[in-house]
Amino acid sequence: MTTAPFGARLDDVVVRFGRSHRMLPTGTVVRDEAGTGLAGASLTIRPGTITGVLGRNGAGKTTMLSLLAAFTRPTSGTVVVGPEGAQEDPWENPWITSGTQLVRESGDLMNDEKLAVSLRYYADVRPCWSAETAERLLDLFEVDVRKNPSALSRGKRSAVGATIGLASRAPLTIFDEVYLGMDAPTRYAFYDELLADYAEHPRTILLSSHLVEEVERLFEDVVVIDRGRVLIAETAEQMRARGVSLTGSKDAVERLVGARRELHRQQLGATVQVTLEGGLDDDEAAAARSAGVEVGSVPLQDLFVRLTDPRSVRP
Amino acid sequence: MFDGPEPIYVQIAQMIRAQVLAGELKEEEQVMSTTQFATTFRINPATAQKAFAGLVDEGLLYKRRGLGMFVAPGARERLLDEHRKSYFEDVLKPALQQADILGISTDDVVAYVLGADGTRTTTEES
User: Which positions fall inside the ABC transporter domain (chain A) (predicted)?
Assistant: First the structure.
């Protein structure tokens, strides 16, 4: 069975958690808001893309991903998920939720049963499940399905999560920090499998990770969440074009910087390296070359760090 | 790999052009599929796709339905032609400017080009 890749849209979504009521000595009852997951987030996920979801700890990534998989409901605003032209509210919507596989850090496995039992469950609820892929990946990651999940190491449990996500072939497959505990060879094996499976079975994949450097080239689109809001939602290429680095003698670099916004500056003796917002046009690039200033790209990781720096001015 | 300032798809296209130019990729030879390319270099297939689409537009690669992408006949000759045109402006001029800065005389440059043993001669003579 194949289904068209799912897209998704969030419109001004607010999620608040842990409402509690408390009585003051005067007898008045007040409501406390324990936390805000999202504070007015709007964004569109393009169907059929691998989209990276980046954000600092507590920015609201997991909240957003849980909304798409209908694990939580928005306090206000709307969420719709589904194939182009047929997007619906995912909440208690069996058609949408059976096509959405969220792999969470916790793994969502039955801890008091053998792993094989959990896998049979996923095979039953995911209409596009590939038993062959699951078997091959568990073999690759050297996971013993006769064990209870609780007997597996952190890294092996993550590998099981990665396997479930890939084998689900769900039109919307979400990996929320699935790499935790995986060693480097296992992570790279996961990236390779993800790309190969995606190329063969196009669908929408969301991947949240703090290891931005490792995964940035897998992304076609990038979403940056910052303090409950969507700071950036665009193609990875557009995001890369947000910054340029200039390295050279202080005077030469200074002339090129002009009135532009600096994201970062590093001084090494007489040489400075400045990360600027925006790119250089052809004339500026030529001027840089003739002044002996090296023009470099800025990795998404650095842009992400600079743009979400609480000390920097909001873009 | 692909750490330059240009977008990755531009760098991929440059790499393929360089391979054709160097004769590593022969005319009518099949190039890697988008999927192979994506998994080999761990990049998004759409990025590789964009690079290939650009090269098809340039006429450097062509598609054979159901088979894949191939190097177009005459591709190497066209690249050679383009690069010869830009060689003096893009490669030699900056090198000679650097020689000026370093105070290397034109005679020294010429002597180097001709080689101490005189093995390098102009193509017109041969």
Answer: 8-252
> Does residue B6 sit at the A interface (CB-CB below 8 Å)?
yes
ipTM above 0.85, yes or no: no
Question: Class for domain B8-73, per CATH?
Answer: mainly alpha
Could you say which of 3.30.870.10, 3.40.50.1100, 3.20.20.80, 3.40.50.300 is the CATH number of the domain covering A6-17+33-239?
3.40.50.300
CB-based contact, B9 to chain A, within 8 Å: yes
Strand intervals (E) in A18-108: 20-23, 29-32, 35-45, 50-55, 76-83, 100-103
Reduced 3-state DSSP string for A120-153: HHHHHHCCCCCHHHHHHHHHHCCCCCCCCHHHCC
Selecting from A217, A220, A237 the residue whose C-beta is nearest the C-beta of B42 gives A217
Cβ of B45 under 8 Å from any chain A Cβ?
Answer: yes
Rounded Cα distance between A211 and A116, Å, is: 30
pTM recorded for the entire structure: 0.84
- Just give the CATH number of A243-297: 3.30.70.260
Residue B126: the pLDDT is 39
Tokens in use for A7? 């897209």
